[in-house]
Amino acid sequence: MNDTLRNTRTSVPSICPFCGVGCSLQFDAERDSATGWRGPVNSRGEVCPKGVAAFDVVDHAERLTTPLVRDDDGDLREATWEEAVSRVETAFGDVVRRHGPDALAFFASSNCTNEENYVLQKLARLLGTNAVDNCARLCHSSTVAAMRERLGAGAMTNSLADVRDETDCLLVVGANPAEQHPIVFRSYLLPAIRRGATLIHVDPRTNATTDAATLHLPVRPGYDIPLLNAMARVVLDEGLVDDAFVSTRVTGFEAFRTALDDVDVAANAELAGVDPAAIREAARAYASAESATIVTGMGMSQHHYGTDNVHALVNLALLTGNLGKPGAGINPLRGQNNVQGAGDVGALPDLLPGYAEVTDPDARARVAEVWGVDADTLPELPGRTEVEATHAFGESVFGALVFGENPLVTEPNLNRVREQFERLDCLVVLDIFPTETVELADVVLPGSSWAEKAGTVTNTDRQVMRMRPLADTPGDARLDLDVLCELGRRLTEHPGQFEYDGPEAVFEELRRVTPQYAGMSYDGIGTGSQRWPFPAGATEGTAVLHVDHFASGSQTAELRPVAHVDPADDVGDDELVLTTGRVLQQFNSGAVTRRSGMLMRLRGADVLQMHPDDAAVRGIDDGDTVVVSNARGEVTVEVEVTPAIRPGTVFTTFHYATPLANLLTGDALDPVAKIPEYKHTAVRIAGVRP
Ligand code: SF4
Q: pTM of the full predicted structure?
């Protein structure tokens, strides 16, 4: 362990750097590892294996400890901070002079603090561009888009504790919380099930979540809307509509009912690849429950019509009166530890802090006043999203700063992405490890790990919690917030706007421009949490949204018919559908967890799950190594033959560099949220290698 570790097991805690659950951790000197601390989410101090391994990477031998710059001969060499930052200043200045500020792109980090993301989006906007985005684009941007538009807030409608204590039916769609959000599952969903709540699991795979389910609908990837529309049709046919709710809180009922006239449950069930009786049973269980909640994940959001998928979920909740009351709602489980907060504080190309539209002159004026600049200073046109920016590299975008993300593993169609990145005039990466993205960088800035920084993060439950430094940054590495503020001073014409006396000062500013955070205080959060929305003058945050009126300000929300759209990839007769996801022991691009000895011992290699029928016709046995390919690329991977995956579909994760699943995934984007279609990729299993 880092010999500069300042605190011991009796110290104040920090927050787990991995998933959006936000478990509190502390360092256990005797075990030389992390241990749970009784925090606002994990009140019994439980953590999952990733949490236990959280310190494995803090003093890892591969930590970046000195700035690097690329020499004329193409090699990265060590540099001073002054040389590295000057290189960024000169290169980005040249790009702005030649092409304007929109020729830059800033990738913020769902894995870093609210304060860091806030400063980065401020930097971009004071440079004159809204081209700032974060990894939320790739996971739940479609969820946020649909829920914001329909309900006024793109976040969990109910708290985890409310779900645990109040819900009678859990409709878990496109999520595997038992592995992806293990403490949510163990501490919130399982207690609800033990209390008697029914769990309906909609997922192409049988997994650890399914084991706790009453009903499993193994939906065909890409065919969620036929399934959800069929459920809505059953609700209508069987008189399960919540008439009182619909009459007072819903508009568009007649048009919705008319649109569903053509829906045939049996036909939709066939399209979705599930038993029509199971659809009817699921609809009855969901609609008949006193309070039913939807828990949703990337199986719904990561489609080129992901926004429509979530619209279909909103329809079900509105139709059955499952919004604005305890135990109900729509609850997206967010992936990274601060993916909720990165959006809250404005690291988005179309939205300012607090989800105000960049196109709204009043919103720009409010932010400009706090920033002490003329309202005209702030750009008014939405910037490019992450994948759009990547696709413009070398054509209309020539400089990029990537902060704490690893797009060379996480973006789709990676052969194309690599070519685009290689076309940049200047790629700057602020990170802690030599990731796949760092390999292409012109300037590498060594930053701080989770255990070295202070600030706040916002978990999936809308709880804002404080991180605390437990160790010093190694070598010449610096705190991310200090690096971003230095870049703000050097790159913009408003250096005074980046003079902060630490993260608390940034938090004080960001809560002035983020209405959801207005009533919070750094001290008030303490070692606990404060939940948004927390308006100025309030004594506490709000657990259940949309109670008397929706967060949009309206008393009503609209039922909106949605129609199925075929997935972008056609699937040939000899092809299978690849769908990707996560496992318990690894996280996101694996840049951090693949460097944990403990986690690699638990899950050191990826496999491709394939149904026995698909394996048999291809002559593939369990443990064989196969080549999975399509026009975009190919990967080699070992096969696990298992009935846990539905026939016609294969599954692997996106955590590993080998196999690199996103070499295969397509870059068709949802027209609203611009999220790529990760969950449906046509592939050939072309051969078996000895
Ligand atoms: Fe960390 Fe998530 Fe595991 Fe909690 S459930 S310990 S936040 S990875």
A: 0.95
